[in-house]
Batch of 2 targets.
Target 1
Amino acid sequence: MNTLDPVYRGRFAPSPTGPLHFGSLVAAAGSFLEARTKGGEWLLRMEDVDAPRCSQAAADDILRTLEACGFAWDGEVVWQSRRTAAYAVALERLKAAGLVFACACTRKELADSAIAPDGAAIYPGTCRQGLAASRPARAWRLRVGNAHVGFDDAIQGRIDSDLAVDAGDFIVLRADGLFAYQLAVAVDDADAGITHVVRGADLLASTARQIFLQQCLGLPTPCYAHLPVAVNAAGEKLSKQTRATALDAARPGPALFAALEFLGQRPPAEMSGASPGELWPWATRHWRLDRVPRGPLCPAVTGGIIAP
Ligand SMILES: [Zn+2]
């Protein structure tokens, strides 16, 4: 990899919890095209920090499918599961700065908590002032206080978040000993020198927490662009849970064509049967971020690759 800092360094960061589906392909294509057309690098990171939900077989399958789709990434694939030491250093820095606190609450004790917009429980603050001697620490949480985080998303526009309302004191080290996704992503993006994050709008609600972590750790904040998320006819995000169809690695052209259409790029109809080798040159020549539909959700209605 170039040792000089490029103007643009993007990444695609799938979670290997299942095969690559249409929604992930959209995020991969959008981040790849935006990086390549800016003359930037495009890195690949496996977000397998939540080890119990991830599998090596799914990761291998995603890598094979990306290669079949003609994606070429810069440098080695980064695996979150191998970066525990970096996350531990970040947690120690947060502890030393008094920005985190130990939490002894069980899931049951938090069951009556208010619910954040993303469906997670908002921490009621029980352990914020310290634990009783008899209570063992289970997790570590970041104090959000009255922090407000705002950023200008290149697709979704201005996003402002009142962290106490939208997230609450959130977990950085889980009760099962695993580092939380938000901490891992903030540390990973900084360590990789990521300048631009292009990803699905399903992660829009996470962004304020990641920016707040960057601020707490003294890390730079990348530019963000959140692509619309492909939903099925019932309005559900395409995922393993909604039985989204896995991509056919033996015939990736139609899915890639549909992803370009979904991203508002208007590939010509005569290219609907084209191979990735034919589609990528067209896509890089014609890519325009300002054609990507705004709004966090967008139905995937093309070419028989919709979730059933
Ligand atoms: Zn607690």
Target 2
Amino acid sequence: MTEIAFAPDVFTWPSDEPRLIGGRCPSCAAVTFPLKPSCPRCGTPELDRHLLARRGTLWTWTTQDFLPKEPYASGETFETFRPYGVGLVQLGDEVRVEARLTESDPAVLQFGMEVELAIVPFRVDDDGTKVMTYAFQPVRAEGVQ
Ligand SMILES: [Zn+2]
């Protein structure tokens, strides 16, 4: 089965250790995600390509309990939609990234918990192609299943 990324240049993939691709300003060192055409802080054009940390902490989160409006394009219908978590993840001291979470159970999600980047299926096209997107998953404590 073919797997493709939902958009180019958003994350490194295929990879055992995927990273989000952000931008770093050569003038003021501001870090952005995604990579932007110019620095949002000082206006410098052409940011450097900068790979973000794989792990971060969950700054805040919510759950998406209903099917988002177009152009969400997951291929889900109101009948098949499954709620998912959405989080704001602090990556190092560089940047906060809004992303899907692999977990949507409020009993599991905790403010400040450690999360790690994962590449997950977003939808399956009619020809069987799996379209992949990025999400953050809780980091399990060592030795705990
Ligand atoms: Zn700048």
